[in-house]
Design goal:
Helix content is 16%, strand content 27%. The longest helix is centred in the middle third of the chain and has 8 residues. The two termini are 15 Å apart. It contains two helices and five strands. The strands form two sheets. Strands 3-4-5 form a three-stranded antiparallel β-sheet, with no helix packed on it. A two-stranded antiparallel ribbon has the order 1-2. By secondary structure, it is of the alpha+beta class.
């Protein structure tokens, strides 16, 4: 379902196909986040690592859409699925 919804990496400006992507838990699984569509977003491996790095980008959901935040809190533009 996440592949049908997102189709590719949802990081702004990235168009890597779903075959290069992982499903990222917005609320991390280790913190009790569910493995359910509303809590998942496709990220290519590069951007998935960036979101998990300390001091890296943060990902939140805003109205069901991914919101990427820089370390300083400024927002990157969302990339809507095609």
């Amino acid at each position: 379902a996440v592949i049908l919804r997102d189709r590719h990496c949802r990081f702004p400006g990235c168009d890597r196909p779903h075959t290069w992507c992982d499903s990222h838990h917005v609320i991390h699984w280790a913190d009790g986040g569910p493995t359910a569509l509303p809590n998942l977003v496709l990220l290519c491996r590069r951007h998935h690592r960036m979101v998990h790095q300390r001091g890296g980008f943060r990902l939140e959901l805003a109205g069901g859409r991914p919101l990427f935040l820089r370390p300083d809190g400024s927002v990157l533009a969302d990339r809507a699925p095609p």
